[in-house]
Write a structure and sequence with these properties.
- This protein has an 8-stranded mixed beta sheet, with helices on both faces.
- The protein starts with a strand and ends with a helix.
- Helix 9 links the parallel strand 7 and strand 8.
- The protein is built from 11 helices and 8 strands.
- By secondary structure, it is an alpha/beta fold.
- The chain folds into 2 domains: about 190 residues, Rossmann fold, CATH 3.40.50.1820; about 50 residues, no CATH class.
Length: about 260
């Protein structure tokens, strides 16, 4: 599926979001909500691998170009309201998919409006990343984006120093990660600021939660996934063999196939 249009949508707080639309814009489709350290462009290969819906709308959340700033009033509620604007614009959407922080945003949105199918890949909830907030605060206040990238990969995701060195060895990729780390402190702060409701995705007719097999039962993503499951008791659980949290980068075609299969359930 090819990208056909990009739209700019005004949201609250003097900001805006853009969306990348693949396929037929006016047909019932899938809305994709990326998480932290990710933007709509990073999901292009996943969108291109999806054919179970006639359209795929990928949200470029505020805080990442060409979308607008987070603004001082930013919160998790801000994200849910932004997604509401997108869903109002694409009111024929049949399914909603969120990855990581985007999964939490989507699950909360599905408490407020009817969604035929809600899918989330390794959604995270508090206290995810809380221990790293003091260091992220210092790095953000000093605009030390190299340090932000190191913190998210080492202290939060638990990757090795060698893994980070490999990332840094690619100047282009490292520059992208530095840019995407700008809103990281505010986003993780928002995630940890408000306890989630006891039940999430209440208005979704069908809920499917996905976890990468290597993360099952292990911190940080598997343990956070288990916490989310306690709040989405009516969800079906699916495991993607051999894939971790960064599946949209490392195996986009495989994730696309899984989403296609889930659409048929």
């Amino acid at each position: 599926m090819e990208r056909t249009i990009q739209k700019k949508l005004s949201v609250g707080g003097d900001s805006w979001v853009t969306v990348d639309v693949y396929g037929e814009p006016d047909t019932p489709g899938l809305v994709v909500v990326p998480g932290v350290m990710s933007d709509a462009h990073a999901w292009r290969d996943v969108a291109g691998a999806i054919d179970a819906w006639p359209s795929v709308v990928v949200v470029n959340r505020r805080g990442r170009a060409p979308s607008g700033p987070l603004t001082n009033s930013y919160s998790l509620r801000t994200e849910v309201e932004d997604l509401g604007v997108v869903l109002d614009e694409f009111d024929s959407a049949r399914a909603l998919f969120g990855w990581s922080y985007g999964g939490m945003i989507a699950l909360l949105a599905a408490n407020e409006r009817l969604i035929h199918q809600m899918i989330a890949y390794e959604p995270v909830m508090q206290p995810f990343g809380r221990h790293a907030l003091p260091d992220l605060k210092v790095a953000a206040e000093t605009a030390d984006w190299d340090r932000c990238v190191e913190i998210v990969n080492r202290q939060i995701s638990g990757f090795s120093a060698a893994y980070v060195d490999d990332l840094r060895a690619d100047p282009h990729s490292w520059a992208i990660l530095r840019r995407l780390s700008g809103p990281l402190y505010a986003e993780l702060g928002a995630l940890n600021a408000t306890p989630p409701p006891d039940v999430m995705a209440q208005q979704a007719k069908q809920v499917d939660l996905i976890i990468g097999q290597p993360n099952r039962g292990t911190a940080p993503y598997g343990t956070s996934f288990d916490l989310v499951r306690q709040h989405v008791t009516h969800a079906g659980v699916h495991e993607l063999p051999g894939q971790g949290h960064l599946v949209h980068i490392q195996a986009p075609a495989e994730l696309g196939r899984l989403l296609n299969n889930l659409a048929a359930i």
